[in-house]
Amino acid sequence: MLGFLKNPVVVTAEINMNLMALTVMGLISRLWGLSYPRAVVFDEVYYGQFVSLYMKRIFFVDDSGPPFGHMLLALGGYLGGFDGNFLWNRIGAEYSTNVPVRSLRLLPALAGALCVPLAYQILVELKFSHCAALGAALLILLENSLITQSRFMLLESILIFFILLAVLSYLKFYNLQRHSFFSGSWWFWLLLTGVACSCAVGVKYMGLFTYMLLLAVAGLHFWQMIGDQNLSNVSLICHFLARGLALIIIPVAMYLSFFYVHLTLLYRSGPHDQIMTSAFQASLEGGLARITQGQPLEVAYGSQITLRNVLGKPMQCWLHSHTNTYPIRYENGRGSSHQQQVTCYPFKDVNNWWIVKDPGMQQLVVSNPPRPVRHGHIVQLVHGITTRYLNTHDVAAPLSPHSQEVSCYIDYNISMPAQNLWRVEIVNRESDTDVWKTILSEVRFVHVNTSAVLKVSGFIGASLPEWGYRQLEVVGEKLSKGYHQSMVWNVEEHRYGKSQEQKEREVELHSPTQMDISKNLSFMAKFTELQWKILTLKNEDTEHKYSSSALDWITMDTNIAYWLHPTSGAQIHLLGNVVTWASANIAAVVYMCLSLWYLVRRRRKIYDIPEDKWQLWVSAGGICVGGWAVNYLPFFLMEKTLFLYHYLPALTFQILLIPIVLQHLSDHLCSSLLLKSMFSALTVAWFSSVYLIYCTFSPVTYGEPSLSVAELKALRWKDSWNILIRKQ
After folding, report:
1. pLDDT band of 509, cuts 50, 70, 90
2. Is 452 exposed, middle or buried, given 0-12, 13-18 or 19+ CB atoms closer than 10 A?
3. pTM higher than 0.90 for the full model?
4. Which positions are tagged coiled coil (predicted)?
């Protein structure tokens, strides 16, 4: 029974020494001296503040993309024991002792290092020689810009890692497709493709470009499978479902999981949550939740409420009034009603409180039992402090003459009767009998007499003049079929009014609520709102000293100074290997010219290369040229501040194309042994120049050694490069 123990257990393994050596060299090049400089380097000042917020569990919104990349950076901080206490306010600021610099930079550096063996394996899976694969890996290894970007707390190296992993996984899956359907390894590489794509998109939305490319390639390959008569209909359906599961369903589920973890970790209120809806803010610990906890859920006649505009632009604001009136005449000579001003005020204030009144009754308190207000009910809104009724009439608004003025009615005993009836319309109702709910209900107020809708003015920069204290204009917009968030309001603070006397009511309006009813949003509701904010929230794009256009990137006419030593000439720049960048451009042009030449000749039934080599050539171009195009061309359509590092994913694909073109030229255009020998010698000389340029610019890649003024001037190969030279 124990006979198997008579012989030793032997495990054999094949080790690719090329791959091992490349991995070690990649790790050395990216991890060496990782904690230098011990100061904030360029965009570390941006990402670092999010890491600190993760450490403190404080909610934030970053309009640059999804949260997965930020969470990976925060993971580095967590593993290093970072407590989040550091003021990220200045590039070049020295890190305090509590900041684990090496740990924070470790994951981007590891991702950058692993891109080297990934490049090698991609070319092997594309069926090119190990020599070409080795060349691609070494070019990635010696690319100064990729080294610089991967050695700091930045996201591009992580993005490129997941992009290359997705490409490699799909190529391995596709190569297994030919002889082992639905095997364990087949499923592994297919599923890993979807996972890597989801992670790439989760780091930055730029990952979506490569994801779309791989979906297109997968769709093309499946289209070719449909024509295979050896596959049954059932088999084709299974293949389709497998791809749908791995490449669509799993990535979507993972993308949602990134937000789930993000929202689970960040449960505390902070400065960023003010742009979210009241319901979202109330779901966070502290902040608005401390104010709204225990509020009555259903708005009733007699309720005291504050109304927040849902749009939140140009800033969050609440429906507001005060004792001041509109001027009799505006600066342009137009007249007003001289009624009490109604505005949208961007701060919490006692003048933001309103009382929901039943037009058929005089009382301003909630009855027992409360009578809830429902969709379609007619109400009057009474300003809590001044007790005047919200009103609109056929008088032009101060800044928006095509809209109606909104005011609180003052009876001047003239022929202008009050028009203060409003119909409550719940926009997000489930039925026409829905009750108006605190925080959860989004409502429009439609004026009964004129059908105008209460809204924050759409006029750009619609802040009232000095007489209106620069508060935002509120108008009555004629009801139209269109819908805009500026017309929608939600109850943020709410209490049941108990005091009929005005002085007692004023005291009540200053008092916190006491009732205990919680209002929690579901994950999908929070995800939908946060995702919409990320996609639509736009910071003001200002011209940056180191911003550039997409055209500048191809020829590297720009650079970015990442860090400058406070006393010496030591500095770090995002600068690429000039020879590699130029060679990548040439390789792309050569590939496209050769492809066009082959296509024309094939149309004439002239086949310059065998069919299998042609298919290899096309496949390589689809991945490398396609990857470059989808990661570069969209930037011409983007209205955002662009930097050189945005080009790095496209550059990576272009670099992979260089050894592909070189091998093709050697195999198919160098017909004699002499030509092959000469071409090989030129290739070695060219690669030596790549290494020489890498060494030349390594002082501004790694930040040491410190260079003299003359040495720095010698590195300024282009007038457009901003090499920093300290004044003597």
Report:
1. low
2. buried
3. no
4. none
